[in-house]
Specification:
about 10% strand, about 160 residues, two-stranded antiparallel ribbon, alpha/beta, elongated, 6 helices, about 30% helix
Amino acid sequence: MVKSEVYITRTASYFPNEPISNDEMEDYLGLINEQASKSRRIVLRNNGIKNRYYALQKDGTPTHTNAEMVALSIRKMLPTVEELKSIDLLSCGTSSPDQMMPSHAVMVHGWLPETNNIEVVSPSGVCASGMHALKYAYMSIALGDKQKAVTAGSERLSRI
C-alpha cells in the first residue's frame, strides 16, 4: 500500500457578530432565577477569556446556524467557485449540530451549493469531534481515496 503525503495548506475561522465583553454575557444569555451568577466572575478571572462571540441578538433571536458559520469559514478559506469545486471530502465535527437529521456536514454542504456531489462525514461527541473529523480527512488522503478534504470543528452553544 502506498501512503500519500498529507498537508494542511490553509486554515480559516469565522466568528459571528461583534465581540461581547464578559460584562455583557448575561445580557445575551440571561440570568438564572432573575439573579446574576455568583461564580461568573471567579470562572472568568480563572479562564482568562476577555470576550466571546454569540450567534444571537440580545433578545435571543439567532443570527447564524452552526452549519452556516462553518460554511462562512470555508468560504473565507476557499473564496472562488473553482476552489470550492475542487473539494472531494467535507468532514465537519461538532457536539452541537443544528438538528438531528440531516447531519451537520450535510447541512454545511447545503450552504456550499457550488461544491460538487462529494463525500460528507459528521463526527459527533463532546470535545473530540473536530479531531475525529481531521483524522478522517487525513486517513482518506493518506490512503489515496481523496485528493482535497476540508475539515471543520465548530460549536454553537449559545442557543442552549
